[in-house]
Amino acid sequence: MALLNQQEQSQVAETITNIERQTDAELVTVLARQADDYTYIPLLWASVLALLLPSAVNYFPQWLNVHQLILCQWGVFILLAILFRLPKIQTRLIPRAVRHWRASNLARRQFLEQNLHHTHGETGMLIFVSEAERYVEILVDRGISAKIPDSHWQAIVSLFTARVAKGETAQGFIECIEACGKELQRELPASREKNELPNHLIILD
């Protein structure tokens, strides 16, 4: 199942096209389902809890002998490793700082992979969303940051993040693009015809 349906993707693309007609900035939007599969997180938690098992059983030495304890450890590890892979449980096991760190790394990779650092006048802008992490980030090249401080985008990011949390990602994209567009039109009004980068929403499923 797509993160956004075709109609929503078309609306986002149309909004980008309209904004780019009025500014020299090049906008690219990227939507990721998840920044990482976090395979190591369930294994880490399962390992820690399995290793703590002997300490707990030590208070009741009559329960298990050494061989039974080892088998019990293995069983606990396997059971928890499977259980902790369930999406609803796994999400709760991952610290917010880790989720945002992984999403931020992916955003920066996308900025480079989409060639936003090679635009004419260094006016590339990335609007990045990772749905699972409920993470939104706006990255801009030097041509934009020289005129608009990076801190200026934070209020727009906060509003977009709230939209993502409510499951209103498509509407969040449109509002974010339009809000960014107003600032870009004021500081970087269109002075030439250009379309260096794709206007459609890039989806990392």
UniProtKB/TrEMBL annotation:
Q: Which UniProt keywords apply?
A: Membrane, Transmembrane, Transmembrane helix
Provide the transmembrane region boundaries. 40-60, 66-86
Q: Which residues form the TPM domain?
A: 107-181
Under InterPro entries, the record lists: TPM_dom
Which superkingdom does the taxonomy of this entry point to? Bacteria
Pfam families, alphabetized? TPM_phosphatase
Q: What is this protein called?
A: TPM domain-containing protein
Instruction: Specify the species.
Output: Zhongshania marina
